[in-house]
Specification:
Layout lengths: L1 E5 L8 E9 L7 H9 L3 H8 L9 E5 L6 E10 L6 H16 L5 E5 L11 H15 L19 E7 L5 H29 L7 H13 L5 E6 L1 H7 L2 H7 L7 E7 L9 E12 L8 H4 L7 H15 L5 E11 L11 E3 L5 E3 L7 H13 L5 E6 L6 H4 L3 E6 L2 H13 L3 E4 L17 E2 L7 H14 L7 E5 L5 E2 L9 E2 L4 H16 L1
Parallel strand pairs: 1-6, 2-4, 2-5, 5-6, 9-10, 9-13, 12-16, 13-17, 14-15
Antiparallel strand pairs: 3-4, 7-8, 8-10, 11-12, 14-17, 18-19
Length: about 525
């Protein structure tokens, strides 16, 4: 999708769709509306009145352009009251607008008309970035691999975006152009995570994730380096938790390590992103029922989110060091598979009794986090489709957020809110930690059904805090939000790419802090 900021008048802009933002109760105060309405002998005004379009937030109204602009179709979108326009209300309006665009036969080129931001809390940089990001996220189509053989025809797609910046200063036009670029990087990252999570498990293997990681590094302009730790190296490293989860699969595991160093040089703070990378989860010998296995190709959604986020960090050229770690494997069952009752001596030197082979994600995260701590990260955020229990807390709306550091949790939660993703912070009561105790080892990998999301988080926390080099840590259980059976906000049905925007915004906030 091409993106451009253009300094042109309405009539000279060639476009299939012209989106016109309208403040509530102030249609005739808009110079753009006046121009469009005047050319049609007040037809647009009369049509808006007939359809009761007043500019309420999220209202849309489609009309032919009638020669008033170079566009074929005019789409009015309500922004609500001018003094209440902010990032969230703008997002709500753009979701409605781009859903309307998706319903058009040939959206092709889409242009956003000039909009005065006087009296609002928004900047033209924020407007451009949000317009660009939401266009990309809402134009997404699931990579369903349909063909034209049986009643399928490819729907129209947005081919290009234009933002008219006439009347703005040269500096503001430049910032608008930057916003379009930034929004494109964010949308591309979210859509990469969605695509990976939607791929069939036979295609999205540990080796496929490794190839994607290498490609991200190769295309980063030298700012990202990639290390792929294979089976022999994992054995030498003592990554026994990852190796045991992998034992029943014919595909080798791989520990993916990406390091982003800004062109301005490494920073003292190093963000650590850790993603659960189970490319298919059968449950192991504690086999899942058929319904529980249906969506397990997406058990690597956390890995997809972290890989996509570090790619976006590089595209945005953020002055903050970031490292990404993914322990990638399948969890399958054959005669070599690990068994309930086994004891695993992990990379973090903690002995773990296997209480349930379907609690495998936390085992792979344990080794990934233990390794990340040796690589100089100063904080860790892990993303994992870890427990079905978290759906009883946040449903499919909010991810569960657990932490060993209230201040860091507040930073991550603020980043999520600014990025338009929802977290539900969950207090980790010490009384629940003992559910992971066992007589056979230091800890077991399942604390049972009671407070299952919290006991799973406590298991991971053992590896974060072991060894004296504790770092601030947030665990995001995205099992309820990584894929949905409905459209919600900017997200489609299926894989959502949840967490990508939060990680990008967290890196941005760290970069802003680093600049001071």
């Amino acid at each position: 999708m091409k993106r451009n900021a253009i300094n042109s008048g309405l009539k000279s802009v060639k476009s299939d769709v012209l989106i016109v933002g309208c403040y509530e109760g102030a249609l005739e105060n808009s110079s753009t509306f006046k121009q469009l309405n005047g050319a049609g002998n007040s037809l647009l005004k009369r049509f808006a009145a007939a359809e009761d379009f007043t500019g309420k937030n999220g209202q849309t109204l489609s009309h032919f352009a009638d020669g008033a602009s170079g566009a074929q179709t005019v789409l009015l979108v309500g922004l609500g009251e001018r003094n209440k326009l902010n990032l969230q209300t703008l997002r709500t309006a753009l979701v409605k607008a781009f859903r309307a665009v998706r319903g058009m036969k040939r959206p092709g080129a889409v242009t956003f008309a000039p909009l005065s931001l006087a009296g609002t809390s928004l900047t033209h940089l924020e407007l451009a970035e949000t317009f660009s990001a939401y266009a990309g996220m809402l134009d997404y189509r699931i990579n369903h691999q349909k063909t034209a053989k049986l009643r399928f025809s490819e729907p129209g797609r947005i081919e290009s975006l234009q933002l008219i910046t006439s009347g703005l200063s040269a500096k503001t036009r430049s910032l608008a152009g930057l916003g379009l670029h930034n929004g494109g990087a964010i949308a591309d990252a979210v859509n990469l995570a969605r695509n990976l999570s939607n791929e069939p498990a036979k295609d999205c293997t540990p080796q496929r994730l490794a190839a994607v990681a290498q490609s991200i590094a190769d295309n980063s302009g030298g700012t990202i380096t990639c290390k792929l730790h294979g089976k022999a190296e994992l054995e030498a490293m003592g990554a026994n938790a990852l190796l045991q989860v992998n034992a029943g699969s014919p595909l080798d595991p791989v520990l993916i390590e990406l390091t982003y160093t800004p062109s301005t040089g490494a920073t003292k703070e190093v963000l650590g992103f850790v993603g659960k990378g189970i490319t298919f989860d059968s449950g192991g010998l504690d086999l899942k029922p058929a319904d529980g296995m249906r969506n397990m190709k997406r058990d690597m959604a956390g890995a997809a989110a972290t890989l996509a986020a570090i790619e976006a960090v590089a595209k945005l050229q953020l002055p903050i060091s970031v490292k990404c770690f993914v322990a990638a494997t399948e969890n399958m069952c054959d005669g070599k598979a690990y068994k309930p009752g086994d004891v695993i001596h992990t990379m973090g030197s903690i002995a773990v009794e296997v209480d349930n082979t379907d609690a495998e994600g936390r085992l792979t995260l344990a080794d990934a986090i233990a390794y990340a701590k040796t690589q100089g990260v100063t904080c860790i955020v892990d993303l994992a489709t870890l427990t079905g229990a978290v759906k009883q807390i946040g449903g499919d709306v909010a991810a569960g957020a657990f932490s060993n550091d209230d201040a860091f949790l507040a930073v991550v939660d603020k980043a999520a809110t600014r990025a338009d993703e929802k977290l539900q912070p969950i207090r980790m009561y010490d009384e629940l930690r003992g559910f992971n105790d066992t007589e056979m080892a230091d800890v077991k990998n399942s604390g049972g059904a009671l407070a299952g999301s919290t006991t799973a988080a406590f298991f991971i926390r053992e590896f974060v805090e072991y060894g004296g080099n504790t770092v601030p840590w947030v665990h995001l259980d995205i099992a309820g939000t990584a894929f949905r059976d409905r459209e919600l906000g900017a997200d489609p049905r299926g894989a959502t790419g949840f967490g990508v925007r939060t990680l990008i915004e967290l890196a941005r906030s760290a970069a802003r802090k680093n600049r001071k």
